Amino acid sequence: MKSFIYQPFHLVTISPWPIITSFSLMNLTMSMITMFNNKLNYMMFSISILLILLCSFQWWRDIYRESTLQGMHSIKTKNGLKLSMILFIASEILFFISFFWSYFHMMLSPSIDIGIEWPPYSLKSFLIDPYSLPLLNTIILISSGMFLSMAHYLLIMKNMYATNFLIIITLILGMIFTWIQMTEYFNSTYSIFNSNFGATFFMMTGFHGIHVIIGTMFILIMFIMMNKNYLSNYHHLSFELSAWYWHFVDVVWLFLFIFIYWWPY
Predict the structure, then answer these.
(1) Domain ranges within the chain, ordered by starting residue
(2) DSSP string, 146-191
(3) What is the reported pLDDT for 1?
């Protein structure tokens, strides 16, 4: 007679998404390296982006199926997911700290090669006015975080109509932020190749933009699953995790606005 050992953890089945996502990220990184040398492989870049998007949607779908339809997420599993998200955000904080460290090093001790000035003298007349598009983006992103927090409260209060409305506003604001950021890039008079200021500016704001896109996808998937009745006023872990991530993105942008846009200007 076969015996079973009952335990509160969820033993996940074999999934293809982690390995495919890893290879897609590797190809995306290689594409970025070729871009820095003006030899961007558009085919490899496009395939990498599509695979990452596909794997993200499929991976989220599996998690929702395991948690809602199969009932695999016990209290300990939920706590483990929360801890995983905290560690992930902590790793992202360290990721951005490395860029800020580099930026402050070059700003507080500028090289003699750029005239011991920061930003370089040749770029001072081309800097983006922080009180134009960057300030508008700041208002948009902070407002989106506020609307998402209000939606969370209304979800707990079982007001689903208002919750859906505020989440839609959050998604629209996130997409507007991305569109304005792209407009700013296309109209910029300097590029990632123009001195160390241009390199750090586009790397930091670019990676933040990628995180905004990921956060928008996270909220979109959560919104779809909520309207399929996968979430409730007491079982909405994905809502909480997406809100944590979105607020992290908000805080990073505040630092970027102050030190990348406002201070050099």
Answers:
(1) 14-72, 91-262
(2) HHHHHHHHHHHTT-HHHHHHHHHHHHHHHHHHHHHHHHHHHH-SS-
(3) 44
Q: How far apart are CA 23 and CA 52, in angstroms?
A: 9
For the chain, give the percent of residues with pLDDT over 90.
Answer: 37
Q: Each residue of 30-60: pLDDT tens digit?
A: 887 887 777 777 788 888 888 888 888 888 8
Predicted pLDDT at 242: 93
Rg over alpha carbons for the chain, rounded to the nearest Å, is 21
Could you tell me which CATH class the domain 14-72 is placed in? Answer: mainly alpha
Q: How confident is the model at residue 6 (pLDDT cuts 50, 70, 90)?
A: low
User: Encoding tokens for residue 27?
Assistant: 């190809």
State the residue for tokens 């990220």: 25
pTM over 0.85: yes
Amino acid letter, 138: T
**H and E: helices and strands count for the chain:** 7, 0
Topology, domain 91-262: Four Helix Bundle (Hemerythrin (Met), subunit A) (1.20.120)
Kindly state the tokens that stand for 256.
Answer: 């970027």
32, 143, 235 from 18: Cα distances, Å: 21, 33, 26
CB 260 within 8 A of CB 135: no
Q: Token pair of 231, please? A: 């979430």
Token pair for 11:
């033993």
Q: What b/e sequence results for 56-87 when a residue is b if at least 16 CB atoms lie within 10 Å of its CB, and e otherwise?
A: beebbeebbebbbeeeebeeebeeebeeebee
